[in-house]
């Protein structure tokens, strides 16, 4: 009977050792350790909106210029931005942070972009930054970029951000919904 | 004898706990969890190849322009690209994806570049993207950049990509072989 | 008494299993596995310092140019750099590597920047590269960017780099102190 107890105890211990007390490095079920949803608003300088513009074309192909987005789906236009981040889809809501960085339109046949940027927070809610990079095939309803790092409250974060174009007004304004799922939280 | 059995059982359990059932966070032998080899092809716009060009100079130093690569080893030229990815070294093979992003020539004395880009796949073979960043001292036979993230089939990937210039034709075409070794697979 | 021994043994084993032999994935105390401090020196081309310049404006907003940093806190200026890295704060010390990549000034109301760059080493001390990305609100005494990857000696590194402006001379020279703390070392 003692031996039976021993076997049972060891069996239970083994079971336990596979459970959450000993997390495996590659969880099969990918449950985010943190999830955040934001909106950000991009108003591109077009020669007439100097005051409201949050973004400007700073690079363009030889056939383009820095005031009007180039033809061929803006291929080659490089934009620098400092966009307000809001909790809802209203441009005039109180910003909770800034989305800062660059994007380039990078395909002649269709709208696609490549993004390198950060979310910068300095509020009571969040302090720190989340860094992103990735391709944005922006005609798709949703598309994923990588969370490549974070600082402050988001120290060492990694994950996926799902972008969705929430609004698009001509060539002067767009609003992205960003659904951030972190899978590495420290 | 019962005590001996207990000691033996615990010893075996301890051994087991050090083995693959409980992977250590820092493997001493760095074996990739995934390996992929691709080629991509960059045809730079030079004022006469508008139709075939897959890349264009969109930023240049004060002494340069956006049609001809600048002197001093192209220092300061910033290029946006949307290059076909192929499985072999033939430009005319069926593309399996697109390499999209930017590179900048960043040294006056010798050719070097800095890259931020993505491989974007949407085929039966691969769906998703791999994101890269890093320095490319392109006169070296091989050089390593970082895989900083991935999406879709490459969810949360990290690793190293070894670049090799496979062909170089004047200032209009180059082909890179990219040997991707992922060390974090989810 | 045998049962008591069993309980004690299992209790000890459980204790052991929580200790360093089985590292948890999310250490509560974040101790770097590697720490490095460097300085790098940026001399921006201004039309008169062609020989000494290590950086050049290659993108600018419509209202700017590539020789003089734009007004509105240089918003939209995109700079390519190849800056010497030194161990101390002396520009004329022997460089131990190069800081290469891009930065963009990205806010109209105050100086802030976004950085994508690499430290490239090829000495007896260090061989390999460290890749960085992040926001640099450069009026803050210190600010953190992400170490998003590494190669060679810094294979697969991740961590945080704390930037501090160590000197600033008009619009032609600045020196950053970079305190690199890696939290993932392979």
Automatic annotation (TrEMBL), chains A, B, C:
Protein's UniProt keywords contain Signal: yes
InterPro entries assigned to the protein according to its UniProt record, in alphabetical order: Allene_oxi_cyc_Dirigent, Dirigent
Secretion signal, residue range per the UniProt entry: 1-21
Domain of life assignment: Eukaryota
Subcellular location as annotated: Secreted, Extracellular space, Apoplast
Record keywords: Apoplast, Secreted, Signal
GO BP: phenylpropanoid biosynthetic process
CC per GO annotation: apoplast
Pfam families per the UniProt record, alphabetical: Dirigent
Subunit structure: Homodimer.
Similarity comment: family membership: Belongs to the plant dirigent protein family.
Biological function: Dirigent proteins impart stereoselectivity on the phenoxy radical-coupling reaction, yielding optically active lignans from two molecules of coniferyl alcohol in the biosynthesis of lignans, flavonolignans, and alkaloids and thus plays a central role in plant secondary metabolism.
Protein name: Dirigent protein
């Amino acid at each position: 009977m003692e031996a039976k107890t021993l076997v049972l105890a060891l069996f239970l211990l083994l079971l336990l050792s596979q459970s959450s007390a000993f997390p495996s490095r590659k969880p099969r079920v990918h449950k985010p350790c943190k999830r955040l949803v934001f909106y950000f608003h991009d108003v591109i300088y077009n020669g007439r909106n100097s005051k409201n513009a949050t973004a400007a074309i700073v690079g363009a192909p030889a056939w383009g210029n820095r005031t009007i987005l180039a033809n061929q789906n803006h291929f080659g236009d490089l934009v620098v931005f400092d966009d307000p981040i809001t909790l809802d889809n209203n441009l005039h809501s109180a910003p909770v942070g800034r989305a800062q960085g660059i994007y380039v339109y990078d395909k002649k046949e269709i709208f696609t972009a490549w993004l390198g940027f950060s979310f910068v927070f300095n509020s009571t809610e969040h302090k720190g930054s989340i860094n992103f990079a990735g391709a944005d095939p922006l005609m798709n309803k949703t598309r994923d970029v990588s969370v490549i790092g974070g600082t402050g409250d988001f120290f060492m974060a990694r994950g996926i951000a799902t972008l969705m174009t929430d609004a698009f007004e001509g060539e002067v304004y767009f609003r992205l919904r960003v659904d951030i799922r972190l899978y590495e939280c420290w």
